[in-house]
Amino acid sequence: MNVQLSKATLSDKEVIKNLMQLYIYDFSEFVACDVEKNGLFKPYPDLDDYWEEGNGKFPYIIQCGNKYAGFVLIRYIRSGQQSYFSMAEFFVMKKFRRKGIGKLVAGIAFTLHKGRWEIYQKESNKPAQLFWTNVIGDFTKGQFEERFEKDKRIQSFEIA
């Protein structure tokens, strides 16, 4: 299958906004989140910021062949203690899951953004924990740290 992770252009913003509804629907199993009176989930906060240059936010679109398959939103967090990349949101549509696409796309994203990474999952989201522990473990050959903070599991690692 021809999988592509491409930097999202302004013309992709509406696609990601629409795919975000599916993502939030999937995620609503793990967080308190309901549709509004119009039948849609509340818009993702600050999505427009991902298309502003120089703010450390990177939007990507996933395609399989010529079909949309999901999106990736990456943030660069500048902290007094340590700066790092974070997988803000990662979504692969259900029909494309369990085919190695998520693992491939994550690896591409890591390669595009070399440096320190932290990826976290809600404690209630066991499928995400399993996915990220396996993906990060394979990509780093087991060279990552894992910790728990509040209701999150966090993996930290370095991409050289």
Topology (SSEs and partners):
Blueprint: E1 3-7, H1 13-27, E2 57-64, E3 67-77, E4 84-92, H2 101-112, E5 115-122, H3 126-140, E6 145-149, E7 152-159
Parallel strand pairs: 4-5
Antiparallel strand pairs: 1-2, 2-3, 3-4, 5-7, 6-7
Main sheet: strands, sense, barrel: 7 strands, mixed
What's the rounded overall pLDDT mean?
Answer: 93
Which parts are unreliable, with pLDDT below 50 for 5 consecutive residues or more? none
Q: Strand sequence of the main sheet, in spatial order?
A: 1-2-3-4-5-7-6
Strand content: 25-35%
Report the end-to-end length measured between terminal Cα atoms.
Answer: 28 Å
Overall 3D form: globular
The assigned structural class equals: alpha+beta
Assembly context of the chains: single chain
Order of helices and strands: EHEEEHEHEE
Verbal overview:
This protein has 160 residues and is an alpha+beta fold. The chain has a seven-stranded mixed β-sheet with strand order 1-2-3-4-5-7-6, sandwiched between helices. The radius of gyration is 15 Å and the shape is globular. The two termini are 28 Å apart. The model has no long low-confidence stretch (mean pLDDT 93).
